[in-house]
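Fresh eyes needed here. Kindly weigh in on this sequence plus structure tokens:
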Amino acid sequence: MTHSTTPDGSADPATSVPDAPVLSARDLQVAYRTGKNTSVRALRGVSFDLYPESSLALVGESGCGKTTLGLALLRLLPTLGEITGGSVAFTGEDGRRRDVTSMTQAQLRRWRWSEAAMVFQGAQNAFNPVLTIGQQMADTLTDHAPGKIGRREILERSAEALRSVRLEPRRVLGSYPHELSGGMKQRALIAASLLLRPRLLVLDEPTTALDILTQRTVIDLLAELRAEYKFAMIFISHDLALAAELADRVITMYAGTVIETGSTRDIFSAPKHPYTSKLINAVPPVSGDLPELASIPGAPPSLATLPPGCTFAPRCELATDECLRAEPELIPLTERPADMTHAAACIHHDQVHHERKVIARA
């Protein structure tokens, strides 16, 4: 990405000139079959661009579509899920743009891990319990590396990847998953995902079920690895403090669609969708007096029976009759390059008043 600079010499995100996106989703739609002739729409027209070396956080309550979006981007949906509309385009280092939704299984096999990889939620279940970590890393290299790769190179690459996440290769390569702690398994999983230096890394809840010190280690590692390997990153998280710390951009999802998007600075200092504002205010600050935390009344709607108009209206104190007539589209709120545009799907965005922002964890 090409940047102009501020007077102090730092990059000015408001005047950045983006390169071609690594990943572009347009009107992406996903449905899960619930019966012989019935289905539920889990994603409803999601569109965004992800630029080289940038980091995007997907946030929202459970069931909003974050994980489904991550899986759909890499064509990893479970059997009952399918992409029913839209497109996903990936641009490689060679500048060639490919439609992920039309790739054959053979093409997907070559593309995954080598150019795009995913770290799944729950490292304790991600590894095969009957194979050593070394065997599983070797299988990844053998199956996905371009051309043939010898045993010595496999060992060297595996050891290098483990060292990059602060793990001792001699200790880990010969270990079975159950012999490693949760934090070690998570780091080993990140190492395995980076074996072939992909251009895109998707992480689903990378710090879930880890103690606070191990979370800190993983967060620091992700920042270091991104700086070293220059990959673009999408991470899915309930942890808004994590999003504030690691993301360049944030997408808030609700009921299977994007309701707000913008730079991390814009989202956390001046959210313009009432749902985003309430999510942020529900997170306690890491220092100072503890204010009264906001709660969000009600519950997310069933995807099988969405309410008319704005899907957040039944829980929103700003809702009016106009909100019930049609589902609002994203409204651009800033005149910035596409990768930093602040937009919100709320006709009352000018009435959203936000008094405090999340402070990244210590």
Summary: Residues 253-351 form one domain.
